[in-house]
Amino acid sequence: MDPNPIGFHQHDHSHCVADAVAEADRSCREAGLQLTPVRKRTLEILLEEHRALGAYDVLARLAKDGFGSQPPVAYRALDFLTKHGLAHKIERLNAFIACAHPGDIHTPAFLICTSCNAVAEAETDPSHSLLSQIAETTGFHISKAVLEAEGTCPNCITDAAK
Amino acid sequence: MDPNPIGFHQHDHSHCVADAVAEADRSCREAGLQLTPVRKRTLEILLEEHRALGAYDVLARLAKDGFGSQPPVAYRALDFLTKHGLAHKIERLNAFIACAHPGDIHTPAFLICTSCNAVAEAETDPSHSLLSQIAETTGFHISKAVLEAEGTCPNCITDAAK
DNA sequence: GCCCGAGACGTGATAACATAACACAAATTT
DNA sequence: AAATTTGTGTTATGTTATCACGTCTCGGGC
Ligand SMILES: [Zn+2]
Ligand SMILES: [Zn+2]
Ligand SMILES: [Zn+2]
Ligand SMILES: [Zn+2]
């Protein structure tokens, strides 16, 4: 199992958490949002994995770090992060993942490997999307789209073949 | 609120439940599957609505009809129906809906109206889909796709405008 | 006819996910 | 200073989903 799959490629993970947190810090300050200690720590927890974490997993880690130990603590922090585009909820897994492209306006699509549990976030062009086309022909107005695919990532396909 | 929105159009609902059940009956017999009383009743319950029902809603109705009253009763019937393409789970809602195009091999996409709770199932061309393209470029093998859009249906847009 | 295994259904119990309601503290507004 | 807003913590509860086990039924093999 690949410990560092982002887009299913190996990468240097050592700086990527710190960089993302610094960037989140900056963008929150710019937008007048409070990236408080719990929220920042929650983002770090998500960034430490390139897979989706359940709210209770996050909660356990927060509690271990001295924050509250009750579900609302985690859910509120996760709500903040998802609301402001710093994290996403993977509906299929009832779990959360740090956004791989924060700052950009994007309709994320996720590729979930059922073998190694890695989750990759792909950029999509909203205007070309299937759902947009359907919406256009039916007159439906989309406010939020969920695009998630489950399957096997390239790494796991290779592993299975050997 | 539109009581009969399928694809957000009015339609004659009187025969549509019975027809769908008869078709399911036929296709199960053909495939050697057992469309047992609980399973058939569960399908009817889903067909009676053009919106998604939670497993516990289904369970309550099953219990009222003399079937078991414990969660596995509903979940097993729903698992059977979803596994064999007679129903789908709407991940965003943690709820289930009868398939609008049973028999066809399809990658369903759903349009969920947050105003009237109607859910429309759209046919999609899997090969043209966004996710397929992403998968192709990344080497990811998709086994199941979730395509769900939340927003406002044409009927509710019109209603809001008046 | 009888045994056996697979599949379906029922039960009680429990796990996993999520929110409601309230108290308190700090920062901001009036 | 008082009121308001925002954030964090708590207890309690609600909602969704699965586990483990016993029973029944319907085949096929003997
Ligand atoms: Zn990384
Ligand atoms: Zn994998
Ligand atoms: Zn109908
Ligand atoms: Zn509507």
From TrEMBL, chains A, B:
Keywords: DNA-binding, Metal-binding, Repressor, Transcription, Transcription regulation, Zinc. Its cofactor is Zn(2+). The keyword DNA-binding applies. Zn(2+) binds at C113, C116, C153, C156. GO terms for biological process: negative regulation of DNA-templated transcription; regulation of secondary metabolite biosynthetic process. One of its GO terms (molecular function) is DNA-binding transcription factor activity. InterPro entries: FUR, Fur_C, WH-like_DNA-bd_sf, WH_DNA-bd_sf. It comes from the Bacteria. Belongs to the Fur family. This is Fur family transcriptional regulator, zinc uptake regulator.
